[in-house]
Amino acid sequence: MKLRTIMKKGLAVGLMGIMMVSLAACGDNKEEEKTNAETDTKTEAKADETGSDAKSDVTLKFQQWWGAELPEGYLDDICAKYEEETGVKVELLTAPWADTKTAITAGATNGTIADIISVDGAWLSEFVDMGVLTNVEDAGVDSSLASDIWKVDGTGYVVPVLNFAYPMYVNMDILKEAGVETVPTTWTELKDACKKITDAGKSAFALNLGTTNANGIQNVFMGTGWGSGISLKDESGAYKTKDNAGLASLAEMFKGLYDDGSLYPGMSTLEESEMTSNFAAGNCAFTVASAATMSQFTDINFEATTIPVKDDFKDKSGICYASWAVGISESCENKEEAAKFINYLLGGIDGKDGSASAGLAATMSAFPNSTVAEPDYSKAPKQFQDYYELYKQNYVINEFIGLPNASDVMTSMTNDLTTYLEGKIDIDTLLSNWQGYLDAAGK
Amino acid sequence: MKLTGKKTAPYRYLAPTILLMIVFMVIPICMVIGYSFVDKAVVSQNPQFVGLENYKTIFADNEYIGAISNTIIFVVVSVVAHLILGMLFAMLLNSKYFKSRTKTIARVIYILPWVFTASVVAILWKLMLQPSGIVNYLLSIFPQISRNTEWLSNSSIALAVICFINIWCGYPFYMISILAGLQGISGDLYESAAIDGSTAVKSFLHITIPQLKPILISIAMLDFIWTLQSFNVIWMLTGGGPVNATETLSIYIYKKAFQKVDYSMAATAATILLVVCIFIAVFYVRQQKKVRE
């Protein structure tokens, strides 16, 4: 047989084979479609059984940074369980915290924004201004499941799922070494303790005023102020720093620590992560950081407590907090389904099961915003359990949440605080400058 | 003209590259330039055309003027120091007074700072320069010097420290380039000069420098552009602080875009920087052309 004939026949056989395979594949597809249809019917029936009318063909995109910070696969498991129970698929779009804002901003402009977005308190106002967020209560989020919903002009846009409180950590060994017998509870005690610690050749109090992420002004400086009922706002709720006697006394207290040499050296470029790692290394006696960082302090003898208050202050202390919070994007086509997922995170399918929220809280050493979640902190460090009691006795506060251009304002306030502590401007100029930033914010 | 003909062949070969350059360079650059003429770029779906308003605003911004001033100091000091140090080390390595093995070991040691990535450089120096770091510890040997110097947190010395670190990690590029140039200079020139009674200084000024001139200009131009765009090391060491003391143009642009979400102003600053870089690039290309001719 000629080579040409062999090739012709071979080609014909090959083509026949391809056709056979294609037909078989078509048959499989039909079978698969049938199977899928059966599954869908079952899923819908299951959804009806659980009281949810979720549509099985819905896929929700969830942009967040949580997945990057939780143990691997933890959030995927919650979403898989939700899909199992409702048939609604939740696709996770995970990016580090620092990139999430850019991803959401870019997505909002080019129409690729996710359905559910994780929002930091500092971004809230900007996202509302941009029209990125929808009214979560109108969408169907059950407000009774959340202790708090973030509002702008009376409209609820974002629901916190977890709250991260900021205790003051105390290195007990440094205190002992410096002859400080008890953990300070007032500003005078704190100042005296810091002086003794500094005299003993140790670093006392860490204040991070680096501007890569300018959150020291919020977590440490105002965290100390909120603990004593000092506020950035007046009674009407407007930002009022000029002639604010409480803020002046707070700034002067920190100036006293700076002048005594009690603030951790290098404060003007110190970042939160460095502050925490220095405390973990036993380099500093006092630091204010998220309760979630407690697991890092394995090699030191420490306590977690509320920040010392002004000497004459007897009321409940405000505790600075940050949140993992979620909102629904305005362009989401399945707002109702998105709201159901948020309800699920807070209270399960039936609104009574706070296990998802409780599990997240226990895993992240955080506190749930859900009203039905009962986290099990039995495996948490003793210091965390003690602090949880203090947390329950007091209240959480963060006056930067909802502030327009919060990151920018905090950076400017931080720069001025550094200048004030270094003695280059006086207290009136400091408070007056801050008033200017707050008034100009969002205009 | 046939699309598949001989005449179109060069364009067909170039098409993939041109396409990639259009997609990844021309379009993004045009978009950034476009953003500089509108308000609320990126964050608004309907940004308004504002003409040169953003340019007027940016030149009235003290922070921007401060960033320009810091950038000029940072770039000029870095480039000049790179040139002097690079020349010094290259001449040392080219000298006949050292054995070949010594030169090889020295070359490896000298080039090390250039091999490190920006993150390694930043972490290394941050650890060494922190108040409880090794630099202050070593300085404590001298009783007159305080052990608590805040190298990166003191606004009056932070920029100088950043310049020093940038010089440290950038001089090996000059050293290698100049060394290659020095090895290409004919020994006959020096011998003739020596016969004519030329001193070492005169030989350096009238033989070495003119012979190295094309290389020196090229690397200085390249370094000028690279240093102008320098971001990683400064961001990781100080974040532009304390109180904007080390804020260069690239840090200013980043902060405007990603901290303040003001993409219009960030694009305006980036466009101005682009124009400066284009001028230097044109000068560089002309210089290269001259060398080839």
TrEMBL record, chain A:
Going by the UniProt record, its keywords in alphabetical order are: Signal
Q: For this UniProt entry, which residues form the secretion signal?
A: 1-24
What InterPro entries has UniProt attached to this entry? Bact_solute-bd_prot1, SBP
Q: PROSITE patterns, per this entry?
A: PROKAR_LIPOPROTEIN
Q: Which SUPFAM superfamilies match?
A: Periplasmic binding protein-like II
Which Gene3D superfamilies does this UniProt record tie to the protein? Periplasmic binding protein-like II
Q: Which protein is depicted?
A: Carbohydrate ABC transporter substrate-binding protein, CUT1 family (TC 3.A.1.1.-)
TrEMBL record, chain B:
Q: Which SUPFAM superfamilies match?
A: MalF N-terminal region-like, MetI-like
> What GO terms in the biological process aspect are recorded for it?
transmembrane transport
Q: Which CDD domains does this entry report, sorted A to Z?
A: TM_PBP2
**Spans traversing the lipid bilayer:** 12-38, 72-93, 105-125, 157-182, 263-285
Localization, UniProt: Cell membrane
Q: Does the keyword Cell wall biogenesis/degradation apply?
A: no
**One GO cellular component from the entry?**
plasma membrane
Please name the Pfam families in this protein's record.
Answer: BPD_transp_1
Q: Among its keywords, does the record have Transcription regulation?
A: no
Q: Kindly give the PROSITE patterns that the UniProt entry links to this protein.
A: ABC_TM1 (PS50928)
Q: Which residues form the ABC transmembrane type-1 domain?
A: 68-284
Q: What keywords is this UniProt entry annotated with?
A: Cell membrane, Membrane, Transmembrane, Transmembrane helix, Transport
- Identify the InterPro entries for this entry: MetI-like, MetI-like_sf
**Membrane disposition:** Multi-pass membrane protein
PANTHER family noted in UniProt: BLR7065 PROTEIN, SPERMIDINE_PUTRESCINE TRANSPORT SYSTEM PERMEASE PROTEIN
Question: Which family does the similarity line name?
Answer: Belongs to the binding-protein-dependent transport system permease family.
Q: What is this protein called?
A: Carbohydrate ABC transporter membrane protein 1, CUT1 family (TC 3.A.1.1.-)
**Annotated organism of origin:** Lactonifactor longoviformis DSM 17459
Per the UniProt record, the lineage of the source organism begins with:
Bacteria, Bacillati, Bacillota, Clostridia, Eubacteriales
